[in-house]
Amino acid sequence: MSGQKPYMIIQDLEQLKAVSDPFRTKLLSLLLEQSYTGQQLAKLLEVPRSKVHYALNELEKHGFVEIIKTEEKGGVLQKYYKATAKGYIPSEKILPYVEDVGNYYKELIMNILNRARVRTLTAPEEAFNFAESEQGKQPLVAMQIETQATEEQFIEWVNKYRKLIDEFLNMSDEGGNFYYLTTIGFQIDEPFFEENKKIINKED
User: Considering only CA atoms, which of 92, 99, 196, 201 is closest in space to residue 149?
Assistant: First the structure.
């Protein structure tokens, strides 16, 4: 058993196809956070155990999950699976397979959003209730924003943001609270905020 890596590069098309399946992506998103047995996953997702075990075998075969421990319960050997990395990135050599890569990212983002919803519903009440109402002093961030930029500008900004993420991860203090952060960002066909729609209409 090896420790969970920060990220893993998806090296070939077979790996990409294995993880682009919606159900396997859902399993993987759960196993990123903690370990589960096939039985626990089947109960959590309310699906047949056979479906879970087949998906786990495929993910294990392609290096996305691994067995981190085994326990015997009632004469049955329970295998605990966990994701081998905290994130998975398609290699440049398989980027020409646009549809498969796109399916992977779409399923990944949908599962991230679903997990964020679960995290929100299970967070303690004090996470959203503050005595201090002054802006900038609340330990909370929640926003939806959009902008118009070139692809190069957006990529440059994302790289700067990744440096802030590194800073976020290195703030670890054993006496502090735990804070959850999730981020998504991608190109859209048209703006949703009214002021940006007006800009498009003026250009037309």
Answer: 196
